[in-house]
Amino acid sequence: MSANLYQDHLTTRKNQEAQAVQLLVELNTLANKGVNVLFFGNRIALNLVDIIAHHDKNALNIADTLAFATALNDQNLSHTTVDLGQALKSGKQADSFTSGDEVPATDVVLYGFGRIGRILARLLMSRPASDKGLQLKAIVVRPAGEADLEKRASLLERDSVHGWFDGSVVVDKANSGIIANGRFIKVIYATDPSEIDYTSYGIDNALIIDNTGKWKDEAGLGKHLQSKGAKKVLLTAPASGDIKNIVYNVNDDTIGSDTIVSAASCTTNAITPTLKLLNDKYGIENGHMETIHAFTNDQNLVDNHHKAERRGRAATLNMVMTSTGAAKAVSKAIPELKGKLSGSSVRVPTPNVSLAILNLNFKNPVNSSDELNAFIKEASQSEQWQAQIAYSDSDEAVSTDFVGCEKVAIWDAKSTLAQDNRAVMYLWYDNEMGYSTQVLRVAETMAKNA
């Protein structure tokens, strides 16, 4: 690289950093007014590197975003969502946005603090501090021994897959709680949902997010509603009986005033938005879904007795054939696909990020892989689907590239096979982070439908 070219790059970077500093001020001001700012469906981390990377990736100038954000602040907007990337792309003006209704505070309790519970806590605590919207007030865990608070806090702070928590985590032993990013989270010990009086902890009309998977029917989940101070229940697993299985942006409009709702499974959330797109465009006759799924903590680390078939074998050493209800569960979100899809699963020795393979027959011809890829790419860049579907066309993409991805599925364009009326398609998904973002979207919808 010549000295002049190097100097040009350095000058450009310095200018970007100076503009990003100014943009940070505007974005913080918007956040304090309750404006949820996105960039092509992505949350913007309020740091220079993230802001510059977003602009470089999408070939946009920070100066243009800065001008737009400043104009939004001049409008004195509040309680609304603005996608800066989409606004700049479509040529919208700042005065085309209006303030929304003030979002009331909703107390949230995480019942269970395993993989999904801790990811939900991280996501909630990474949001700007506010007294509106979802407010994580407590976690409920089974009674444990000495130093349990310290262990819970450490598990929130340190994660072998997702790395360190972005912020501070402090144990408040005197009040039996954890302070994360300055916000107090009560730790409640209980063995049964119905025995808790949440009002005694200053919690009322709470949304209980059950991520234990222990109860999946109305009788079991209904125990939560027997607790004083609990109002609604959201299950982070497929539900049985008449409980609605919700995939956000597909059938969340059916939630209504339901007091018990399921956010379905990570795999159902990963495949359903894409299946809806494909069915609307080409019409799905039938097909099969295979998920190559990261191992989970319901498997054994070493060979040992297990009530389920094959799951007793060492998870970190084996590919394990198992079943999945994801394909069948899709029909709860897209009724016209009932009976058209079969499904199976293979657990593999990776701790996170899974892969769904869709083998489908269509009513209308797909013609080519390029046509199908172009269709999904356009959808992934639309305001309607950008928060759920991402698009990858890299020859080098592997599973760890998608750790931490908040999109519910990533279309692997290089693997698409399509001819005539048949196609085989591959969807990556962070089965922890991507799913958890969908859970919170369902939670927000339930909170609004008070």
Walk me through this protein's architecture.
The protein is α/β, with parallel strands linked by helices and 450 residues long. The protein has 3 domains: 94 residues, no CATH class; 133 residues, NAD(P)-binding Rossmann-like Domain (Rossmann fold), CATH 3.40.50; 168 residues, Dihydrodipicolinate Reductase, domain 2. The chain is built from 11 helices and 20 strands. A 9-stranded mixed β-sheet has the order 6-7-8-5-4-9-10-12-11, with helices on both faces. Strands 13, 14, 15, 16, 17, 18, 19 and 20 form an 8-stranded mixed β-sheet that branches. Strands 2-1-3 form a 3-stranded mixed β-sheet. The mean pLDDT is 94.
Residue fraction in strands: 15-25%
Helix proportion range: 25-40%
Structural class per helix/strand content?
alpha/beta
Parts with pLDDT < 50 across at least 5 consecutive residues:
none
Tell me the layout of helices and strands.
Elements: H1 3-32, E1 35-39, E2 42-43, H2 48-57, H3 62-74, E3 80-83, H4 84-90, E4 105-111, H5 115-125, E5 133-141, H6 148-157, E6 169-172, E7 177-180, E8 183-189, E9 206-210, H7 218-225, E10 230-235, E11 244-245, E12 260-262, H8 266-282, E13 284-294, E14 320-322, H9 326-333, E15 341-348, E16 354-362, H10 369-380, E17 389-392, E18 409-412, E19 417-419, E20 422-429, H11 433-448
Parallel strand pairs: 1-3, 4-5, 4-9, 5-8, 9-10, 10-12, 11-12, 13-15, 17-18
Antiparallel strand pairs: 1-2, 6-7, 7-8, 13-16, 14-15, 16-20, 18-20, 19-20
Helix pairs in contact: 1-2, 1-3, 5-11, 8-9, 8-11
